[in-house]
Amino acid sequence: MSLLRVCAFAKCLNRRSLFGECAVRVSLADRCQLCLCASIRGGAVRRISETPLLCQRRNVSFVIPKREDAKKRVLEQSQLLDVLEARIQQLQSDIFLDVQHAKVQFVKNPSSGRGVLPAKSPRSTPKEKSSISKSGKTVAKGASESHPSRWMEKLTQEKNNKLTKQQHLHQKIQKNVKEKPTAKSKGSKSSSVLPGTSHKTISTTKKTTVPLIKNRKGRMKLSDEIRAAVSSPVASSSAAAGTAAMAHKVSKGKQKGSKNPVPGKEGQKQTVADPQGMVKELAEVEELERRLSQQVSQWTSSSNPERLQEYSEGAACGDIQLSIRSYLEACVFAGDVERAHRFLLSQHRVMSRRKHLNTGVYNIIMRVWAKKGILNQIGRMFILLEEAGLKPNLGSYCTALECMGRNPNCSPKVIIRCLSQMEEDGLSVDDLFSQCVFRQDERDMVLKAVHIVQPDYQPSLNTNANQCSSSLVKDFYTQKSDHQYPKLDFTQEELQERFKRQLRIEQACTITIDSVEAAKPVTENMAKMRELLADQRAQWQKILLQALRESKMILANTNTKDYRLNLYPYLCVLEDREYVDIMIQSVASLPPSGESLKILASDLGNRVYTKYSVRQKHQNQMVEKLGNIYNGYTELLAKDTKEYDILPREHWCKLETDQSTGPTLQGGETHWPYIVTLELGTYMVDMMVKNLKINSDILNPAFDRKLIPILYHMYTFRSTRQVGFIKPHPILTQMQQEAMETKLTFDSYVMPMQCPPVPWTSVKFGAYLLTPTKLMRTVEGATQHDVLLEKCQDLHAVLDSLNQLGNCAWRINKPLLDIIISIFNDRGSDKLDIPPPLSEAPKIPHFNAQDPTYTASEKAHMKREVINAKKKCSEMHSLRMDALYKLSIANHMRDEIFWFPHNMDFRGRTYPCPPYFNHLGSDVTRAVLVFAEGKPLGPKGLDWLKIHLVNLTGLKKRSSLDGRLEYANTIMEDVLDSADNPLNGKKWWMNADEPWQALSCCMELANAVRSPDPTQFISHFPVHQDGSCNGLQHYAALGRDVIGATSVNLMPCDVPQDVYSGVAQQVEEFRVRDAKSGLKIAQVLEGFISRKVVKQTVMTVVYGVTRYGGRLQIEKRLKEIEEFPKEHVWDASHYLVRMVFSGLKEMFTGTREIQDWLTESARLISKSGHTVEWVTPLGLPIIQPYHRTRNQVLKSTMQHINLQISHDTKERPDTVKQKNAFPPNFIHSLDSTHMMLTALHCYSAGLTFVSVHDCFWTHALTVDTMNKVCREQFVALHSQPILQELSNFLLLKYCAGLPTEAKNKKYQEYRRLLLLLAKVPKTGDFDLQRVKESTYFFS
User: How many other CB atoms are there within 10 angstroms of residue 711's CB atom?
Assistant: First the structure.
């Protein structure tokens, strides 16, 4: 034992790392051998700790083996000793090569953490340690339990690893590769082994003794690595041995957790079976890499490759940074500068928190000191920036100069020094005025400071003159001589008055309107309930006001830790009464069945943020400037002003440039993170639940009087998840229902705008006057879309198309609205899609579950009936309230002209911003909307109205236009009867597919045919032209698929081709064939395969529906057929979905190939750790926000809310969602591009144009012009090499710059991705120009 102690102690004194100097290491190895012999034979082993100090204090642990195992143990120990001796010799022979590489390969610990070794040991554990014990146990114990064969296998594997390394070096020498190795050294997982291997790269801790020069990232230069290989006595091992070692290594590596085929094994087989094929593939890869390397310089110049890197760096602390910024801004806005300053300093002092700060955070506080003219505080902030390792940016210098401008005693030398420092940092004074966001008089102060040292300086502003670079619209922006931009039918004075009205609505943030139920006579009970509710609300306001003030005092005084974010500043940005009003409003709109806490809290938080944002704009003094610019903007739109040849966005930008003084309209306010709005909302809900009470005897004096809460916090199950719910007390619900109040209060953004929207001029500015609006709708909390948009400088065409859609003026079809309201107030109509009132809901049965007269089965049946009745009541209430909101808004706007501002989703599909009432809604809402501007029908307008009516009935889908027109003429008697007596006549219109739009069209037709000259009849009615299975049209055009193109009307035909009927016919042929061969289910389906059965599946296949989803769709359709035997539904739906997919594959061969290519590309991209990203032909960047879901818990006093976040960029991509969503999302991005192109060119032709995705609307007069533009733009779009450009983008995005050596960890996946992306699906022979002649392409 004394020998063991001496050896262990000596070794601890000398050991700084696994290998110290060479001589020391050899002697230690000898000692180690001696120690091992002594310890194994003596039955004790030294326990090695991570540090020398611990090693001295705890260097021995005793393990006493059981006597009955003695014989077995002796045999195993002797075998183990042989292995260890061989290992020591191997280490001694390897010493130079391994030290020069500063890394040692050892087998991954299969049972880490189970033995007596410390859990953190792998990074600093010596290699001798692995030779003592690799299972985390002492040798004696390990020897008695482990199998010698394992040790022999590991030793063999070590030899193979070494051979592989040597072979990699040999290959480098042969190829004379000039690139630097990419494998990181210190503790990096990105080692030289192939994917999935169970090896790690461990750095020696003392690198100063290594006689090799490394680059700053710890990687060896290639020349040094080659020199090390040459100096090694075994570096000249044969290439064949190296190849074998590599194949062994790959095959071993892929055993760990991989279900995919092993690339290494496949490669090995391929080499043996087809060496020529392998050579050809390698040549192809080399050619692709050469081509990519040529484009990398262009790629880097456009800053695209940095995009992912920059974003990944910023995303790591993006949410925290956003929370910090919003907290500081709220403090400053509320006037609590001291709290903001303390908080920033507390974050700055601690390194772990300082990493979350960026220059913009410091600038928020600098802005405050600049307003006060305290220059020494600005200087301190610059010192803090330097301490944090951050550089001042334009905003920093802007605040410094503003402070100097406000300070009358500021020395010119200080200003000169500031400007010269800016210049050293590569920033110019012009950049200040063109890129900084100014508030109040900041710009004037900065200019004042500059004028002190440069009296003649005038800012040179960027007029935003750079044009759209997309070749699709280059001519649109450069050749404007023939453009005829439409004017609005208003004078400039009228538009300016409308602006003032809209501004007042948005400043109030809410609007109260009359409900359409107001027409009912007021009964005595209704009046009583309304009075009771008014009294209660007055009391609740006082109670909430007191509770809010008390809770704010507690929050203000109990926040002892300055570095912690709390809600206090967010509760100070508005007046106390405004918070109370928001809470009272939410009680009034709570449904009887309750609302999810998460949804209710988020809604409350967002309302506070909207009001705060509007107040900020007032404080920054931008409202007056907005009014001045809008007054100038009306010159472009008004009918009594001169003609302009510029677009709304261009005109607005010019006006902003001309009026550059004062605040910037595009304010740099920080949007509150979702977690902040949710926490604030939860706090407010908690206050409501605790404080809002009502007397229990308010409706029934017989009850005992006591105060009871009006809101209850309870839990319910959604699927398997428990969800917090806020439910109103039945007394409150009863009072609200019986009161039947005549007023509805909405947020201002819910209403259509009463003036033309502000044109989108940038990602952050457009749509409403003051209400914050996002250009791109995203999942709450997702920021990756905004990052891409802000980096994109070329969105003019996208913004201009949104502006064109938003500039369309609307009005209400009053006669039709009155008919709909009359039915709504008279019990509704399920057939006509008018929801009935709750009085028509089924009564909820009441029964006593304890009643012994009921059997168990009867009780179960009664419970099911109760559940179903409650569910039905809840659904009816939701539908009724939705209809009430839509009809009340329509009724409020009945005498107004109004506009719908637009934005888009992340695929580029456009939507109106007002959520309830818009032209994307149901048949009812579409029917009551007509264009504000009327145009004469012209020579063909009446025919288009008739054809449109037939289209709305859905009766003549397979007929030609002439056939539809002929049918319309035969039913004119019914049409006129419907217009004259809609509710008491023949009611022909009620049987149409879209009954309310059909009735509206009947009325328009009746007025037109009864006018003196139908060609001069002024029509406001929108005529629709709908794409024929638009998704398949884009696929067929991409693949130039002749058969597919014919099926979806890209090819001119005499009658419209119906792809759904075509697929149904194909499936019927398959069924007949199978029925003849005796398949029972095919025989059962005879006579049941129709267009309706297959339509939904065919329509959604193009958008990524799976066979599982398709089967459910067909099952639903079969269940609707009463004659079909229900016992065969399951088998029939399985059979039919297979046949539908087979039929589509035969009809659309090109489509399937493209879809498969897109799917597989997305799968490999997401497997490599990236989300799929692309750019539309109009330059809109798109990224799929699907990541693996992580749970985040929001802790509050009410309950812990579990947030499932699936858009976090720090998580790995969700491969399944990425691959399934890419084909439909890509097609959606193409159909939105086609719509935007059509919108732009219709606008330049003077047309009124709006769209509902792939359904285009215009006046009857201009249908032919719109059809021509629509076809031309589709041909122009698909004349671009869309798939080739996508391939190039994806190759540059995901394959450029990756190393080509086979040793790279991801090489196999990289090669497969490279070859796949480069192999664009082949196209057919379809001539795109034929689309221009196709009548039924859109019809």
Answer: 22
Nearest residue to 996 via CA among 876, 877, 829, 810: 829
Residue with tokens 């003849």: 1076
Per residue in 561-612, pLDDT (tens digit) is 666 788 999 999 999 999 999 999 999 889 888 899 999 999 999 999 999 9
pTM above 0.85, yes or no: no
* Distance from chain centroid for Cα 1224: 15
Q: How far is CA 138 from CA 50, 103, 115, 142, 143, in A?
A: 15, 25, 8, 6, 8
In the 3-class helix/strand/coil scheme, how is 719-769 assigned residue by residue?
A: CCEEEEEEEECHHHHHHHHHHCCCEEEEEHHHCCECCCCEEEEECCEEECC
What distance in Å separates the CA atoms of residue 739 and residue 972, rounded to the nearest whole number? 46
Distance CA 869, CA 843 (A): 7
Residues in the chain: 1339
Q: What is the pLDDT of residues 1191-1227, one digit of tens each?
A: 888 888 888 888 888 888 888 999 999 999 999 999 9
Asked whether 761 and 799 are in contact (CB, 8 A), the reply is yes
Q: Could you tell me the pLDDT band of residue 85, with boundaries at 50, 70 and 90?
A: low
DSSP 1170: -
For residues 617-628, average pLDDT: 91
Cα 373 from Cα 369, distance rounded (Å): 6
Identify the H or E element spanning 513.
strand 510-514
β-pair partners for 514: 743
- The closest alpha carbon to 638, from 784, 495, 814, belongs to 495
Task: Looking at 781-922, list the stretches that DSSP marks H as alpha helix, in order from N- to C-terminal side.
Answer: 784-791, 796-806, 814-824, 856-892
Q: If you average pLDDT over residues 441-470, what whole number do you get? A: 80
Q: State pLDDT tens for residues 428-444.
A: 888 888 888 898 888 99
Please, what is the Cα angle at 1064 between 1062 and 1069, to 5 degrees? 95
CA distances from 1199 to 97, 552, 1239 (A): 60, 20, 49
Exposure class string for 636-646: b at 16+ Cβ within 10 A, else e? bbbeeeeeeee
Task: Say if residues 1121 and 1088 touch (Cβ distance below 8 Å).
Answer: yes
Which residues share a beta bridge with 1026? 1255
> CB of 1053 within 8 A of CB of 1336?
yes
Question: What is the Cα Rg of the chain in Å?
Answer: 37
Q: Angle CA(1085)–CA(1088)–CA(1092) in degrees, nearest 5? A: 135
Rounded Cα–Cα distance for residues 361 and 344 (Å): 8
**Rounded CA gap, 683 and 608, in Å?**
12
Identify the CA nearest to 106 among candidates 242, 217, 197. Answer: 197
- 């003392």: which residue's tokens? 206
Does residue 1183 contact residue 1173 with C-beta atoms inside 8 Å?
A: yes
More confident residue, 159 or 1188: 1188
Buried b (16+ CB within 10 A) or exposed e, 350-364: eeeeeebbbbbbbbb
Tell me how far apart the alpha carbons of residues 1052 and 1040 are, in angstroms, rounded to a whole number: 15
852 confidence band (pLDDT: 50, 70, 90): confident
Tell me the C-alpha to C-alpha distance, in Å, between residue 674 and each of 512, 602, 603, 1141.
27, 8, 11, 42
Indicate which residues carry an active-site annotation. Answer: 1026, 1095, 1254
What region, left, alpha or beta, does residue 110 occupy, with left being phi > 0 and alpha being psi -120 to 50 degrees? alpha
Report whether pLDDT(391) > 50: yes
Q: What is the largest CA-CA distance in the chain?
A: 122
Helix (H, G, I), strand (E, B) or coil at 1200: strand
Q: What are phi and psi of 51, to 5 degrees?
A: -115, 150
Q: What is the mean pLDDT of the chain?
A: 78
